[in-house]
Write a structure and sequence with these properties.
4% strand, mainly alpha, 2 helices, two-stranded antiparallel ribbon, elongated
Length: 104
């Protein structure tokens, strides 16, 4: 006979749900360990390389990948950066609208 589990809320939980929860917990633990070992760099950095072969240390233009010294002032680069920012705005606005609607 399968073992019965009861959730703290009083709901019956199947063994399959318990196994799934354990797998998810193990995955989250592994991700946390990975992030602790390799923290994500949050500072944006120009993707161009300098004459020495190392990455440029300057910040890229807003929405762009390169700084103004490595092509960020070119009209096509500015247009692409602006288009990239506009493409991010619509999904963000949808999420914000949904969040506001849930709080009403």
């Amino acid at each position: 006979m399968p073992e019965k589990f009861i959730h703290p809320d009083g709901e019956h939980v199947t063994e399959e749900q318990v196994q799934q929860a354990k797998q998810e917990a193990a995955l989250l633990t592994a991700r946390a360990a990975l992030l602790e070992a390799n923290p994500i760099e949050t500072r944006r950095q120009c993707t161009a390389t300098n004459r020495a072969g190392t990455r440029c240390g300057r910040a890229p233009i807003p929405g762009g990948m390169v700084c103004d010294r490595h092509g960020g002032k070119a009209p096509q680069t500015i247009a692409a950066a602006q288009a990239r920012l506009r493409s991010l705005w619509e999904p963000l606005f949808e999420v914000f609208t949904e969040a506001v609607d849930t709080w009403r």
